[in-house]
Amino acid sequence: MPQIPLDDDGHLQDHHAWTPDVAQELADTLGVHLTELHHRILMQTRLFFEQYHHSPATRPLIKHLKQTLPDDEIDNAKLQVLFNTGLVARHVNRLAGLPKPPNCL
Hints:
Helix content is 50%, strand content 0%. The protein has 5 helices and no strands.
């Protein structure tokens, strides 16, 4: 697979270059194999970005996912397990091909 242009924080330089294969390549760096649930979460995160023109921080992300994916019963703990990280917003946005949220370390 060709080298994906990333910024200094490991996020895609161009969110339009995102594909599910790119998402898996980024997920590999976290030791995560993306499932259908992961892809639903990533697609909803991308829709949030399209609607609000910024990457969601953790609380808005979880609120959005609870509203748009009610059957998946999303909460912070579930996202931490799914994405193998405590930095939920940072890594969900990263795997969704989006910029780092402004308030993330």
